[in-house]
Amino acid sequence: MTSFLQALIDATSAGAVYALAALGIGLVFGVLRLANFAYGEIITASAYTLIIVWPINPVLAVLGAAVVGVAVALLMNYAVFSWLRSQSAATLLIASFGLSILLQRIYEGIFGANVLSASVASGLSTSVNLGGVRLNLLSVVTIVLAAVLLVGVQLFLTRTSIGLQVQAASADFRIARLLGVRSGLVIAVTFAISGFIAAAVAFVLTVQSGTVGPSFGVQPTLFGLIGAVIGGLRNLRGAVVGGFVVGVALSLLTSWLPPEINPFRTAFVYLLVIAVLVLRPNGLFSAGAGKVRT
Amino acid sequence: MKPIVARSGAAVAVAASFVLLAGCVSSAPAESDSTSSAAGEGGGLTIGVVMAETGFMSPFDIPALNTIKMEVDAVNEAGGIDGAPIELNIVDTGSDLDQYASAAQQVIDAGADVIVVTCDYDVASPASLVAEAAGILNIAPCVGDTIYGPAGGLELGFSMGNGTPGESSVMAEFAFAEGWKNAVFLTDTSIKYTVGQCDVAQKRFEELGGTTVGTYDYVQGESIVETVSQITAGTAPDVVFNCGYSPGGAQAAKDLRDNGVTAPIVSGFGMDGTFWLDSVPGLSDYYTVTYSSIMGDDPNAAVNELADGYEAEYGERPSVGSFVTGTSTVQALVAAYETAGSWDGKALADAFLAFDGEDLLVGPTTFTDELHINVERPQRVMKITGGELAFLEERAPEKVVFVD
Fold first, then answer.
1. Burial of A247 (0-12, 13-18, 19+ CB in 10 A)
2. In this predicted complex, what is the ipTM?
């Protein structure tokens, strides 16, 4: 029972990280139909900020990571994606893939290929034992942070004027524009929020690892994207649940698969993705067919 | 018309799978030619260097490459070889596997007499095979896999590195000598080197009478908190073997310590260096087996002198102890030329095979027809206490074991 509870705690924490990544990715996809592979490089930029600035001033590091995350996301929008808005989803996807590689090389040029390391919020790394179950403070913080951001984004989308415009654009970009939704502002706000969420992901991951390298954000983005696809890229809640499911599945497979097949745990997750795409091409939580963006 | 979302989902999945199969992109291919002079002029030695100055292999390649440059300068200042200077023709592969074969051909076409390649067999072998086909001696300064040589089809290929069987046997023997009897083995499966490392260490540890209480895998970039939960739920280990390299190996170390595993941890060369130590504040009871100490406390004064010279030249100390292999590569070439009398690949290979405890900076060096890499050299055991790396002891393997 104890090991079962331990596995659930570990899985919930892992799921929360990928749920956050899926939220950031799903937000942008909803408006722009862009599955942004370069999202990982926003995470990486914030992580570099945290690792470099934290030893100088932790508060500045957190603020700086958020500002950098938002700034890099906006820069991506204005420098690259705003020029490609009329292009197909496939073109946007490939552009984001290229941008991802380009930014990794830029980070390598600036910071070197080797990892930078620092202890970020080391107090969160401590564990307490509760009746045989190990509870890491970072796990609690990760779950709370994910919950707060999810609720915050939900409130923003449903209780603010610009949030409602984002929702309208997500539902049908062309009609929303015809109805007076300011498309440029909506897209910029969406990128900014996704950048802020990337900074939150970076915070959790840098506390967890204490290191950052040029390809730091690749893995969480991959699994975030996969989660968003499973859940339904057009359905923000679905994307978040999908990200959570991927994290939980990976964690539980790591905990429970027999040692002989445990190294293939990631393959099982991809098997799950294939099965979902075959059975429900729009994802588990998307109803009906998607609409063409013009 | 199919829904665009469905197509987007499929495209994302395909692209994600592509990235996964590619081993997760870390950098785009980039090549830069820093040819120092026309190759082969004056009958001297031209070394074609096909290594990574950028990309994921560069932390391992750069220290050896830098000391190659330093040793070449030293030889040239002393009059060169037979009065002719050594020339370096360096191509930065950007750690891109696809660049290695063409880069090797490029330096061969430019007149390279010898090829020096990246410090990992999987990555370097395309370049090595091109050199082999051209009858040119190829040297990997710090490959640890014993496949570098005849086992990998390289009759003219030699590594100056410490072979994994020797390194891993030292890891096991050190741990057992410390009185640690129950061990957990954590293996990063992303490269062959770390897989072989734990396989050998486990075999040797059990031979000595130790007990394996758990074996677990991870890959670079993964958190291993679930694995730590399994470790803490099982028999408490006296020692954990972390067969990995940074940053994944550092993540594993941090997850172990953050989640209550206080047992000593033993790693090999992959976890050498100080650059990752800030990620685990106050890390203690951590041991690495490596080539030499970068901290200025190596038992060999010449190593410390080289590290100081490196710092003066490049503004920082070498990041890992394999920096001595670059110097040793040039030393070996100079020594082999004295025997061979030419830069012919076969003649040089025969001269290398004639080495019998050749006194190189990396240690006494002997090659055999089967093993073109050394497995019996003494190595350094480094200890990390309170986040500080320091030399602990010199230790040669008492018995070297191999795995299939």
1. buried
2. 0.78
